[in-house]
Write a structure and sequence with these properties.
The protein is α/β, with parallel strands linked by helices and about 200 residues long. The protein is built from 6 helices and 9 strands; from the N terminus they run E-E-E-H-E-H-E-H-E-H-E-E-H-H-E. The strands form 2 sheets. Strands 5-4-1-6-8-7-9 form a 7-stranded mixed beta sheet, with helices on both faces. The chain is globular.
Length: about 200
């Protein structure tokens, strides 16, 4: 546990609850890249930022538990999608804000996450890259839990559509931004580790 977390009033959730269909059904968090599992790369980056690290998973709970402060799962145990994991994390988060990240973005760095956090306020903070929303790289006030739950109960399953209905703050990333790359396909696992940092 981080003794002096850098983001002192922010919980972090790593979303690792998907089916991993493009990975042949593997648990994506435990797919190896550069000698470590993807989830271990992510945990290494975010561990100093919070004393409330949550992992949302639907299998391999004991393996994930050693990396996190809390584990959550979808209530229906049927891979309900990332919004379900976000809701579960908001319900247990110990701090006023929840930083949401996928488990398969090992190029992420603390500089980008700190930039997200600097925009913390009443509304969610979303990244946009090349005209596309990146809802799984977002900062959500836990006070928005009820609004998101109401949208879920009304049938909304898309994190993007749900968060866009909450008047989010938008951060535009440059076209050359590489830290948001999702390693969700076997072919991208051959990509090298990005060394140079570029800020949004």
């Amino acid at each position: 546990m981080a003794k002096y977390p850098l983001l002192s009033n922010c919980s972090i959730v790593l979303l690792a609850g998907g089916r991993g269909q493009r990975m042949g059904g593997q648990d994506k968090g435990w797919v190896n890249w550069q000698g470590q599992a993807l989830i271990e790369h992510m945990q290494h980056v975010v561990r100093p930022l919070t004393d409330d690290l949550i992992i949302s998973c639907n299998r391999n709970h004991q393996r994930y538990q050693r990396l996190a402060d809390q584990i959550v799962s979808d209530t229906n145990l049927d891979f309900a999608g990332p919004l379900a994991g976000i809701l579960s994390a908001l319900e247990v988060a110990r701090h006023p804000y929840l930083l949401v990240l996928p488990c398969d973005a090992p190029r992420i760095d603390q500089a980008l996450l700190t930039q997200l956090y600097q925009h913390a306020g009443e509304y969610p903070v979303l990244l946009q890259h090349k005209g596309h929303w990146q809802p799984l790289f977002s900062l959500i006030p836990c006070a928005q839990l009820k609004n998101l739950q109401d949208l879920w109960d009304a049938g909304e399953r898309s994190p993007k559509h749900a968060l866009l209905k909450l008047n989010p703050v938008v951060i535009d990333c440059p076209d050359h931004e590489q830290r948001l790359a999702n390693f969700n396909d076997p072919s991208v696992l051959q990509q090298p580790l990005l060394i140079k940092e570029t800020l949004c």
